[in-house]
Amino acid sequence: MKNFDKPKTFDYNVLVIGGGSAGLVSAYIAAAVKAKVALIEKNKMGGDCLNTGCIPSKTIIKSAKVLQMIKNSSKYGHEVDQENVKSDFSKVMGRVQQVIKKIEPHDSIERFTGLGVECFTGDAKILSPYKVEVNGEVLTTKNIIVATGAFPFVPPIPGLKEMNPLTSDTLWDINERPKRLLVLGGGPIGSELAQSFARLGSEVIQVEMGPKIMGREDDDVSEHIQKVFEGNGIRILTEHKASRFEIRDGQKLAICEHNGQEVEVEFDEVLVALGRRARTKGFGLEELDVEINPNGTMIVDEYLRSPRYPNIYACGDVAGPYQFTHTAAHQAWFTCVNSLFSPMKKFKVDYRVIPWCTFVDPEVARVGVNEKEAKEKGINYEVTTYGLDDLDRAIAEGEDEGFVKVITPKGSDKILGVTIVGSHAGELIAEYILAMKYGIGLNKILGTIHIYPTWSEANKFAAGVWKKAHAPEKALEYLKKFHSWRR
Fold first, then answer.
1. How far apart are CA 244 and CA 227, in angstroms?
2. From CA 183, how far away is CA 196, in angstroms rounded?
3. How far is it, in rounded angstroms, from Cα 164 to Cα 16?
4. Which of 240, 304, 307, 487 could form a disulfide with 256 if both were Cys (CB 3.0 to 4.6 A apart)?
5. How far is it, in rounded angstroms, from Cα 166 to Cα 177?
6. CA–CA separation, 106 vs 119, rounded Å?
7. Topology alike, domains 12-151+277-341 and 161-274
8. pTM for the full model?
């Protein structure tokens, strides 16, 4: 650890580097408790989530779903001339930008300045644990919060660079729909975008090195989504590893390894969706010898502090272990409160109940363990499943595919984890998140009134399935005799 002179006084209580989800929430909280806070963002306020991630991707997902519903409108009683159903891709992408602009004020410099945050646009350079330079000005601060996010990982596959690959950062700049789109990656980002572009009319080939797409999910979940994708016209190549790219006779080719053989895949554009890497280089961490994990994230303790410099904190994608906007905001609370009130008061970051959702159609939402993880952890568990094909609201809306799957300890109604596959899964799972957070079991969910007919009834019915499986058989047999005697 290097020695640095500590100023006697500071310009700021806390200085935040990065204006994405983690940084904005950190600055917001600091200003709310009347600390003097500075925020430095070198590019666009709102970070990846607003400009290249969550918001644009969910916008294009909606446009793709509307088109799919139009094409399937006959099941709702409408007759549509399928040959005249057309999509204007440039307008779809224009709508993406309109949505971003509509949300921009929420994350703007003007808003945060009004909240009491001093905002700087420029490249931050950490000079010491107490000094940060921006635009030639040196700012002193008692604490630093690093919230610099992550960037798409593009592997050094031979020939890939020459293909001018698209990523989740650059995809939103195109205005012409790719005729044939090769998607590298079967995770959440790759899957969401593969389905969207297939529904918008691209011929999509999705290449995944592992044995299945959405590999973190249970087999029944992955199989369900793969069947849907194939119905959307996506060609899925699992256990295919892209080994090189080349142009032959003017045609772009991806050469993949599969079962010891080479498979050639023709395409027009390639989208690389192979994960994201934490942004830890280029702004001073190297010079301070701040410790970095093998995966590129900052090493932080249970209070989200750098072990080497306890007044340097990190939150969001740069800290890991999760890369979700909502966990970035969750971590931001801990970094802000700990930086401002330590050592009088400090809190260990809480990762007990972390939910997420992959916004394919149908959605896949999860919280806690799934079957695969329960087996790996040696948990003596049982599974309760409720099919959405039984739910009245789902049937009425013509979206009665999917299921609710709950993991509980053997013989207990305690919820260890839930996976929901279906329309509105990201909304439905909120009840289970709350239940797990506060120790509410399936019996209490079953005893709660849910409005009829709604999607949320699926949660109550899943609890009912569990209850039926745990009915006290001896007591019921006694009641049968009792009622027989009463007749």
1. 28
2. 12
3. 34
4. 240
5. 13
6. 14
7. yes
8. 0.94
Cα separations (Å) of 92 from 97, 178, 390, 397? 9, 13, 35, 25
Tokens of 116: 């009491």
CA distances from 36 to 39, 140, 259, 339, 385 (A): 10, 11, 59, 12, 51
Q: Which two tokens stand for residue 409?
A: 């300890």
Tens place of pLDDT per residue across the chain (487 aa) = 677 889 999 999 999 999 999 999 999 999 999 999 999 999 999 999 999 999 999 999 999 999 999 999 999 999 888 878 889 999 999 999 999 999 999 999 999 999 999 999 999 999 999 999 999 999 999 999 999 999 999 999 999 999 999 999 999 999 999 999 999 999 999 999 999 999 999 999 999 999 999 999 999 999 999 999 999 999 999 999 999 999 999 999 999 999 999 999 999 999 999 999 999 999 999 999 999 999 999 999 999 999 999 999 999 999 999 999 999 999 999 999 999 998 899 999 999 999 999 999 999 999 999 999 999 999 999 999 999 999 999 999 999 999 999 999 999 999 999 999 999 999 999 999 999 999 999 999 999 999 999 999 999 999 999 999 998 777 667 767 777 888 7
Query: Most distant CA pair in the chain: distance in Å?
Result: 92
161-274 has which fold? Answer: FAD/NAD(P)-binding domain (3.50.50)
Domain boundaries, the chain: 12-151+277-341, 161-274, 362-469
Class of domain 362-469: alpha beta
Ramachandran bin of 107, using left for φ above 0, alpha for ψ from -120 to 50, beta for the remaining angles: alpha
CATH of domain 12-151+277-341: 3.50.50.60
* Rounded Cα gap, residues 290 and 475, in angstroms: 64
